[in-house]
Amino acid sequence: MQVNAAATPRKVKRKIPSATTAIIMGTLLGVAQALLLIFGAKVLLRFMGVKTDSPMYIPARQYLTIRALGSPAVLLSLAMQGVFRGFKDTTTPLYATVVGDAMNVVMDPIFIFIMRLGVRGAAISHALSQYLIALILFLRLMQQVNLLAPSVKELQFGRFIKTGFLMLTRVIAVTSCVTFAAGLAARQGPIPMAAFQICLQVWLTSSLLADGLAVSGQAILAYAFTEKDHKKAITTAIRVAQMGVVVGLGLLVIVGGGLYFGAGVFTKDKNVLHLMYLGIPFIAGTQPINTLAFVLDGVNFGASDFAYTAYSMIIMAIASITSEYLLAKARGYIGIWYALIIYMGLRTVAGVWRVGTATGPWRFLRGRMLS
């Protein structure tokens, strides 16, 4: 007697040409960025205030050049994370990032101290960890999506270039503010630069914890706007903003206390520590503003309000860079932190403004306000 066993259903991969486009664009932009950073390192460092006779020049150029080799992996990872977010899958990018960062933490002391590569070791460790993250995401994505597009027309390069240009404009504006601030610190010498970089990393890293809220809110809002579920969009925006404030207040306490009692973990130099302690009120006190700014970015992204986000950021960048220059000239190291508070405050105002004025994708709020 012949038994016909039920065939095991084979999981069909999704056909999403935009995923292929995102990977191609991410790779090309990553290669372009790597070439720009490698061959333009000297010019970029000079712009940052690091001259060739500065003791910071050689290690800075070594670090920048090696880190640049990881640019394709960074942008490719960001592109694939966007694809997973489109699936409402925030778990896979989280696991990939945790594995990559854990590898970075383990390799840092090995390359820096055991192999005595110093700054170069830190750059090598970071670049390798980025390629590991990209590899994990790529292998996982291949299991779910057919990445071979049937034709070039389906890749929708025109649509990607239009939206990508807006996002690229915003990223350049955001990066310019922080980069210019770092350049002003570098012009004040190695000690202020060292203190500023340590404080800046703590300031940004802790604030980026709010990115998890922003990503979750972005995914839910995008679905709500697609379904024209305005009630869900409003509820999500309010809830995410509330959670952002709560997270920010928590970070205020954690970052303030942690940096005050744990500053010695970063350096033993008394002069650097003195400047770090001066920056603690700014770093800790701005955490609620920072987290709210990140969350509101996610709200606007979820509403596909890319044009407003990009153009408003350009205006904010011009105002912020101007304030950085003037305040650094007037108040030195502390003036830079005053300017960064203005920068994050303006970002928060820009995020609230769109929803508060019921314009753009939030026009539907006008009817609710009048009723």
UniProtKB/TrEMBL annotation:
InterPro entries: DinF-like, MATE_fam. GO terms for cellular component: membrane. Keywords: Membrane, Transmembrane, Transmembrane helix. The keyword GTP-binding does not apply. Its main location: membrane. Belongs to the multi antimicrobial extrusion (MATE) (TC 2.A.66.1) family. It is a multi-pass membrane protein. It comes from the Eukaryota. This is Protein DETOXIFICATION 42-like. It is found in: Membrane. NCBIfam families: matE. The chain crosses the membrane at residues 22-45, 93-115, 127-145, 165-186, 198-225, 237-263, 275-296, 308-328, 335-356. GO terms for molecular function: antiporter activity; xenobiotic transmembrane transporter activity.
